[in-house]
DNA sequence: GTTGCAAACGTTATCGGTTACGTTTCCAGC
DNA sequence: GCTGGAAACGTAACCGATAACGTTTGCAAC
């Protein structure tokens, strides 16, 4: 039963119904020009054989497929949130969704993955694509919406207000009395990483606090990349009283490093992340972070893409969604020596 | 830049390189029989045009595509866990993954979705498919592995030990002193729902406790379906001292209903779920539940499918993975009146 | 100078479905 | 009986890539 024979094609249906494949195609697509009796014949043949049109063959011939694509580098917690939002936006819209993924879960991955996948899909299979956190610029013959674009990307995009979020973090830390604040940056080619660092720098400058370049570590959003950087920051004699990591994954690793070194959080060190992934609320202590609803990012991206594909998008081509500071147990006023 | 012109085809490359499409194909696929100078010509043309082979055209012609599919009804938290596991298993295996999804996030969906999607993909696009929690039996011309199969499904499958998990829950509640234990069942066509209910019944019977049919509500795994059922159970004068819901989603809704009715959990009522989704640990109180690593389910399913596609699977066609009772704050001994 | 053989490359049928176009059928209108 | 025109349906080209097959070329052995 599970191992059905050869797949049923339109040809099989046509032969059984005693008509040409053209007629079957017309019936399947509800086109004009088929007699009622022939329609019944064909439908019954379809029923009998359990025929279902091949997505591949259809999309090769047709320009519209009513399938949208989403290209991602990996599946992490936030990916699921994005997908939920995308699916909600596509609900009863007549569009199906194809998610295309490849490669290492956390490891290295070859440059240009987003462009390769995009090109393979968008020529034919999909009417348009969402690209999740690409590392570089993307181009496509069909509409594209980018979530968390690369720096200087021109493609339509949806992103969180990273600048405001990072500013709020630093103001929160300054308000608590911190002056020496370390920063662990993200992959520099991403606009989000750049904006978060910019928020960190400008908020400090605004408060008249000098930016100490030696307090900035260059990570790449990969949690593991934060380990040596956190260790370097916390090993110093004049270590910072607070560390702001540009992603929750890196912040959680920083918490681990602090624990290893016997540094109490938040007593001796405050730690802040960015993203508000589910794991952050479960950390010990719970992580202060910036919430950027990945669900809404996905939702807005899908809504935008839908309109772009239908050629009826009127709004701006870059959407920026608000962020929200979530204060939890990993931040406190610095100990007075 | 984002709106590139017409897609680049193999024909464009052939024309620019001054060779036939056949030669381009041979170069792309690294086949024998092309001179070094021609290879260089073709490669440079590919580079210049930014050519990428069309997944659709390739899969239509070829029998092997090195793409595996996963068909799902919706994206929920556990879907992401499964996907993480699948991707880990596919890491550096040479297989890409396509996830196909459609339809309502939580709402109704037409019967037979799994079969339709499967047929549309498996004829051509994918070498094999994983089907996530289908509602009925599936058949396909390419290998299929089902996660959480329908009852009486013959297809190769991977599932958690739902019977043992449910038994452990009931024994835990019995051990705490509960005797009136309500049950909110899942979609009855699923093997998992059946096994969880069977575990509930047999554990009670084993302990000599009569199974009261009026304490069993018939849900369908959809969180919303639990609301009226929980309300009915908790509104009764002789309400149960504990409720075991067949999924965390339904258990969390039960917690909400209890809160609405002013019933203290775990003081006046114990609540247990099944699945251990991330939200359960964050609930107030944190939910006692059964962990069935969706990550491992995905991992094992992908491993099995990979072997099936390569025709080298030796193991059993039904894999059952262990479950683990996770005791948190939502269960306690019943109050003595 | 043949012959033999393999390398190198082009031609073309093919996958399954769609569609432009052509052909046949049927009936109303004169 | 003839014409016009629309409805009904088949034929074949086509989408992009692959692979079986045929053809040409290059080179070594006899």
How do the helices and strands line up, and which of them pair or pack?
Two copies of one chain form a homodimer.
Chain A: H1 10-17, H2 21-28, H3 36-49, H4 55-61, E1 67-72, H5 77-90, E2 96-101, H6 113-122, E3 128-132, E4 144-147, E5 157-160, H7 162-176, E6 181-185, H8 191-206, E7 216-218, H9 226-235, E8 242-245, H10 248-260, E9 270-272, H11 278-282, E10 289-291, H12 294-310, E11 318-321, E12 324-326
Parallel strand pairs in A: 1-2, 1-3, 3-4, 4-5, 5-11, 6-7, 6-8, 8-9
Antiparallel strand pairs in A: 10-12
Chain A binds a DNA duplex (30 and 30 nucleotides) through helix 2 and helix 4.
Description:
2 copies of one chain form a homodimer. Chain A has 337 residues and is of the alpha/beta class. Chain A folds into 3 domains: 10-53, lambda repressor-like DNA-binding domains (434 Repressor (Amino-terminal Domain)), CATH 1.10.260; 67-159 and 294-319, Rossmann fold; 162-293, Response regulator (Rossmann fold, 3-Layer(aba) Sandwich). Helix content of chain A is 41%, strand content 15%. Chain A has helices at 10-17, 21-28, 36-49, 55-61, 77-90, 113-122, 162-176, 191-206, 226-235, 248-260, 278-282, 294-310; strands spanning 67-72, 96-101, 128-132, 144-147, 157-160, 181-185, 216-218, 242-245, 270-272, 289-291, 318-321, 324-326. In chain A, the strands form 3 sheets. Chain A has a 6-stranded parallel beta sheet with strand order 2-1-3-4-5-11, with helices on both faces. In chain A, helix 5 links the parallel strand 1 (67-72) and strand 2. The model of chain A has no long low-confidence stretch (mean pLDDT 89). At the A-B interface, helix 4, helix 5, strand 2, helix 6 and helix 11 of A face helix 4, helix 5, strand 2, helix 6 and helix 11 of B. Strand 2 of chain A pairs antiparallel with strand 2 (96-101) of chain B, so a sheet runs across the interface. Chain A binds a DNA duplex (30 and 30 nucleotides) through residues 7, 9-11, 19-26, 28-29, 31-35, 38, 53-54, 56-62, 123-124. Chains A, B: Residues 9-42 form the HTH cro/C1-type domain.
